[in-house]
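Sample intake sheet
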Amino acid sequence: PVHFKAYGMANREKKIANDIRTRFNIGSINKEFTQTAIRQLIREGKLSADDTLGKFFPDYPQAASRGATVQQLLTHRGGLSDFFGPQFSAAPKDRFASNADYFNFVGSLPPNFSPGERNQYCNGCYIALGAIVEKVSGMPYEQYVAEHIFARAEMTSTGYPRSDRPADDIAIGYTRRGATGDLTRNTSMHGVTGSAAGGGYSTALDLLTYVKAVRSGR
């Protein structure tokens, strides 16, 4: 590290300023943790890159997607629907409090294309990978990454807290989307927790710790 300084407000209503240990929504950086979880399970012989979604979920509602392989899901070639869209925007966000909730929702949406047909950024693919982690490990996705990734890397501030009741060390997201253009909380734009595709919380220090843990083989 060559520079540490925090800027801006974590919570405008409470007038809480950001500091270097403030936890931020890290968006799709969470996909990195899902990739690591999958690679761990492959290394342990519990999973293969050629395994299909249908192997683990033979009754997955979208039959055309059952043939998507783990490798295709990892590389955004699985074709599963994204969860963002009109139906998600209209849904109560407390419906989305775990990766399993997102997986059930994505399974209700028609796929964008057949597995392997093309490459297209795919949040739904990573949600499906999170469901596979659950199926293979026998524990919720959030518990698996907490025990096998965050704990091993000594990431003490990373996880999936609920955004509808944030602690004071969490930065609230704000948006100007709306009729007035004024800053308002963005909590209505995402689920109350993140998923295997993104939306968890971490700090700059924890992400640095993760990089060091990966490089050292931990």
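Comment: The longest strand covers residues 9-11. The radius of gyration is 18 Å.
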